[in-house]
Amino acid sequence: MKYDLVFEGGGAKGMVFVGALEELFNRGHSAGRLLGTSAGAITAVLLAAGYSPANMLKALNEKENGRSVFAGFMGEPEPFTKEEVKKSATRRFLPTSTSSSCRDS
Predict the structure, then answer these.
(1) Helices 39-48 and 53-60 sit at what angle, rounded to 10 degrees?
(2) In angstroms, how far is CA 65 from the centroid of its own chain?
(3) Which of 32, 48, 53, 57 gets the highest tally of CB atoms within 10 A of its CB?
(4) First CA to last CA across the chain, in angstroms?
């Protein structure tokens, strides 16, 4: 049977869709129309592009220097440099902030 599939967002929850799709396909079903938001949109696009659940799982398990590539997307970003803060659009928009943490040192 062919099912229209809707995938919700939720960051890392998107990984769960791979197992659900694998089970759906193993039971002889297929995907019809696809819709998703955020992480679900990524799953929908990969499925529409012809990726199988096994392909998606392989990508999720990819490692670089012994660390999951996927985990790198969830890491904390580097802090802005003083120069980046000084030149930021927000800084130009709010040039007279009263917060000492926002003033130039």
Answers:
(1) 130
(2) 21
(3) 53
(4) 65
Low-confidence ranges of the chain (pLDDT < 50): 105
Sign of CA dihedral 37, 54, 62, 48: negative
Spatial distance between the Cα atoms of 19 and 22, rounded to a whole number of angstroms = 5
Task: With 0.70 as the threshold, say if the pTM is over it.
Answer: no
- Yes or no: say if 38 and 45 are a contact pair by the CB < 8 Å rule: no
DSSP 63: E
57-77: buried (b, 16+ CB within 10 Å) or exposed (e) per residue? eeeeeeeeeeeeeeeeeeeee
pLDDT the model gives residue 3:
95
> Quick one: tokens of 12?
């890392």
